[in-house]
Amino acid sequence: MSILVYTESEEGNFKKIALEAVSYAKGIAAMMGTTVTAVAVNGGDASQLGVYGADKVLEVSNDKLSKFNAEAYADAVAQAAKAEGAKVVVLTSSANAKFMAPLVAVNLEAGYVPNVTELPASTSPFNVKHSVFTNKAFATTEITTDVKVIGLAKNAFGLKEKSAAATTEAFSPQLSDDDFSVEVVSVDKATDKVTIADAEIVVSGGRGLKGPENWGLIEELAETLGAATACSKPVSDMGWRPHSEHVGQTGKPVASNLYIAIGISGAIQHLAGINSSKVKVVINNDPEAPFFKAADYGIVGDAFEVVPQLTEKLKAFKAQNA
Q1: Residue 45 pLDDT exceeds 90
Q2: HSE on the CB side for 239, CA within 13 Å?
Q3: Selected residue with higher pLDDT from 289 and 190
Q4: Is 191 within the bounds of a domain?
Q5: Which of 153, 178, 155 is nearest to 74 (CA)?
Q6: Taking the CA atoms of the chain, what radius of gyration do you get in angstroms?
Q7: Are 161 and 20 within one domain?
Q8: Is the distance from CB of 285 to CB of 270 less than 8 angstroms?
């Protein structure tokens, strides 16, 4: 019996969230006195998974799985879990993983808990802590089924190197035509920018920028930090920025290590989308802006004065420490 972990990849490279999931699975394995088996679908260098705790990697190479398909991927993961006799299956809480996790759980007759934030408080009974109500609170849930499926929240556990070697073996799941009843026709995505979902740092702007012509302030700061750019709902509604950058309860959730909000008042719907970010910095000229109550650091000032100075200071710091 091992802990099974699905490792997401893109264009042949494992995502950071996949490596974090392996680290988390290793933590559970240590509690239960077992090993970690990773499933990689058309993934990258399997030795990388060993560094973060995988003892074995099942490598799935299948051209039909070159594009994410929830039913097919879920079937492959479930078959791997059955082959390994896994009692715990670890996924992430990415959009794709949340799509396939219920399918995996149904296939394995397993209980499923998403947005898990830390290692189980105990494994007998199996109790896990997870965020609820759009990250406004936490709950502890006992999973009573024989097999458990866990969705790990982004940036909840971190990367923990184990520097171990992982054995690899080919794994060929038996996939039927039913697994491909939904076909991915095309995928359109930006290739020249850091995406909100994968970004460690996010720089976000609101109506305080006064117009799309001033968005260069956000983009220059983001480029300096190697960050993704984002915006509030009113900004995307007015067409200043694409809806793909809208962060909030009705937009995309952000769980970055650093979230910088510039000219955003901090409506409750926006805060619900960024509550999982570790450090929140707010720049706003209104000292009564609600965002300051949720911020770790706040600057009361005009964004058109503060942001250029901040950007220049960061550029100078990077030049001195290059």
Answers
A1: no
A2: 0
A3: 289
A4: no
A5: 178
A6: 21
A7: yes
A8: no
Q: How confident is the model at residue 189 (pLDDT cuts 50, 70, 90)?
A: low
The model's pTM is 0.78
**CATH code, domain with 25:** 3.40.50.620
Q: Measured at the alpha carbon of residue 101, what is the angle toward residues 100 and 103, in degrees to the nearest 5?
A: 70
- Here the tokens at position 134 are 């759009």
Q: What does DSSP say about strands 201-205 and 167-170: parallel, antiparallel, or unpaired?
A: unpaired
Task: Give yes or no for residue 318 having a pLDDT over 80.
Answer: yes
User: For residue 221, what are the domain limits?
Assistant: 201-320
- Per-residue pLDDT for 201 more than 80? yes
Report the C-alpha gap between 37 and 22 in whole angstroms.
9
Q: Which H or E run includes 291?
A: helix 291-294
Q: Which letter does DSSP use for residue 44 in this model?
A: S
Q: Which of 114, 147, 180 is the last residue of a domain?
A: 180
DSSP per-residue letters across 258-283: EEEEES----HHHHHHHTT-SEEEEE
Residue 199 token pair: 């970004």
Residues 214-247 as b/e (b if ≥16 CB within 10 A, e otherwise) read bbebbebbbebbebbbbbbbebbeeebbeeebbb
